[in-house]
Amino acid sequence: MINPDLGKKIERILGKGKRETVEEEGEEKQASQPTTTVGKIYVKALSLHSLEELDKIKDEIKLGNILIVKVEPLAEKSIEDVKRAINELSEFIGSIGGDIARLGEERIVLTPPNIQIWREKTQASM
What span, in angstroms and rounded, lies between the C-alpha atoms of 73 and 70? Predict the structure, then answer.
């Protein structure tokens, strides 16, 4: 059973630490930590069942992969754990210069520093 408020809760969590791209003289600032991307970049779909799986997610991002993470399995156990997981992933992604966004009601997408998520500009952000 999908929690109808899960999408709103994810958006609220991600909105608190929303990262904005900073431009200096026409160039985007990059994080000081480089990725260890070697070879191909993969798009991987994972399900988050426990907080112990966060290290695996971080390792995949460090390898340069793009992740689509279904948080609904963890939400069925604990919304508080979902909040902790998303906050931890948001801080990690921000520290390496990657990007994170909500993808629908029960998924998030995470990208390494060399890939940014396109966001449509709204009236409020103009």
Answer: 7
The 10s digit of each residue's pLDDT in 92-117 is: 999 999 999 999 889 999 999 999 99
Q: Are 88 and 54 in contact (CB under 8 A)?
A: yes
Domain that includes residue 84, residue range: 6-18+40-116
Nearest to 3 by CA among 97, 67, 81, 60: 81
- In this structure, the dihedral spanned by the alpha carbons of residues 7, 103, 89 and 49, taken in order and rounded to 10 degrees, is 70
Give the CATH number for residue 61. Answer: 3.30.110.150
Let me know: does 67 contact 57? Beta carbons within 8 Å. Answer: yes
3-state SS class at 109: strand
What is d(CA 53, CA 15) in angstroms, rounded to the nearest whole number? 23
- Domain count for the chain, please give it: 1
Q: Global pTM? A: 0.70
